[in-house]
Each structure stands twice: as C-alpha cells, then as structure tokens.
Amino acid sequence: MALRTGEADAAGFTAVRLVSGAVALIVISYFFNKGSSKNAINGTWSSAFFLFAYAICFSFAYVGLTAATGALILFSSVQFTMILVALYRGERLGRLEWLGLLVALGGLVYLQLPGLSSPPLFASLLMIAAGIAWGFYTLRGKGSADPLRDTTGNFIRAVPMIAIAVIPFFSQITLSSRGIVLAILSGAIASGVGRIDCSSRLR
Predict the structure, then answer these.
(1) What span, in angstroms and rounded, lies between the C-alpha atoms of 37 and 203?
(2) Are 117 and 167 in contact (CB under 8 A)?
(3) What are phi and psi of 42, to 5 degrees?
(4) Is 171 exposed, middle or buried (0-12, 13-18, 19+ CB in 10 A)?
C-alpha cells in the first residue's frame, strides 16, 4: 500500500519500519521484564543482519512487484532456504516438507510459463534475497529460550544498519503521513509484535 502508491520510498519505509519495530519491542520488553533480574534484550549481530537484509531487500523489491507475485517469490525462497539447509545438515525430510519444496518450486516455475507476464528480474532477485535472509533469520531463532528478548535485541541492532544504508538515498526519501503510518504498522505491529511468542509470559 505504501511502496506501490508512492506514499513512501523503499529506504525511508524500511527505516521507519525497523525503528518503530525496535521501539515497540523495547516498550513490550520493559513491561514483560519489569521486576526481573534478566536484561531487557538479547539477540545477536548476525541475526540482526539477516533481519536488516530481509527488510531492505523486501522494500526495494516491492517497488517493482505486485503484492501477490512478491509474496509468492518471498515465501517460496524462505521455504527453499530452510529445507535446503535441513538437507545440508543431514536431516531427513517428511512428506509435508517434500510437498512444501515441490509447491515452492512449482510456484516459481509458474511465474515463467509462456503467456504470463514475468516479473522484473532485478525486483525478483531482491525478493529472493529477502526470502533467503528471512529463512536464515528464522533458522537462527529456532529453539530460542526467550523469543521476546532475542527479537528486541535483533531489532535494536538492525537500527544502526538501516541508518547507514539510507545515507545514499537520503535526498530521495519521500514519506507522506499515510506512508509513515503504514510503515509504523508494518514495523511495530506486523514485524515487531507479530514476530514474537509471548504465550509463556502471559500464563
């Protein structure tokens, strides 16, 4: 809604998205860890890099892709990444995993069928990179003992990365009021709150 309508540029949208996600998670972490001896954040720089890479590639890719095409490429790439890593580690895949791999491959092949309008190559490659980054971010977070602290720390560490990345695009940043609101919703709600599992803390 923001990137395809000119309400926000890719760099500005990503910056607001990651910063708002970090702020929302800091607030949530404060209340959940209030009175606790634990530190409010955790996470790692490598996980933060994959988070940043996903977010920046995602935004620039969607400038040239429709929502449906982008989602298909993104989730197919995530699926491919996680299953191929599992195979590399010597894990045996079940029927559902093999089915997921075939569906992901089929979706990408479908985009190239004769008679269809193939998506722009550069935008598609950016979305594939976003999917790979998100796949590795997910794999690194697998088995996290404290998803809230880890996610908060990763978002905080991603902020200086996006601050550096937007420097070349600073003069081109375009953010309308609606674009800012959409970026905040994407960061604080969809990317921040939506990526954590607070169930164990809400019992």
Answers:
(1) 19
(2) no
(3) -145, -130
(4) exposed
Q: In the numeric block, which tokens belong to residue 98?
A: 């093999």
- Domain segments of the chain as ranges: 10-202
Neighbours of 61 (CB within 10 A): 27
Share of the chain above pLDDT 90, in %: 44
pLDDT of amino acid 100: 78
* DSSP 8-state symbol, 120: P
pTM of the model: 0.85
Q: How much is the pLDDT for 195?
A: 61
Residue range 117-135: mean pLDDT, rounded: 91
Which amino acid type is present at position 82?
M
Strand partners, 8: 175
pLDDT surpasses 80 at 72: yes
Q: How far apart are CA 48 and CA 85, in angstroms?
A: 19
CB 12 within 8 A of CB 175: yes
pLDDT reported for residue 163? 96
Residues 6+ apart with CB under 8 A from 46: 140
Cα 168 from Cα 23, distance rounded (Å)? 24
For residue 47, the model assigns a pLDDT of 94
3 state DSSP class of 44: coil
pLDDT, residue 191, reads 78
Distance CA 180, CA 22 (A): 15
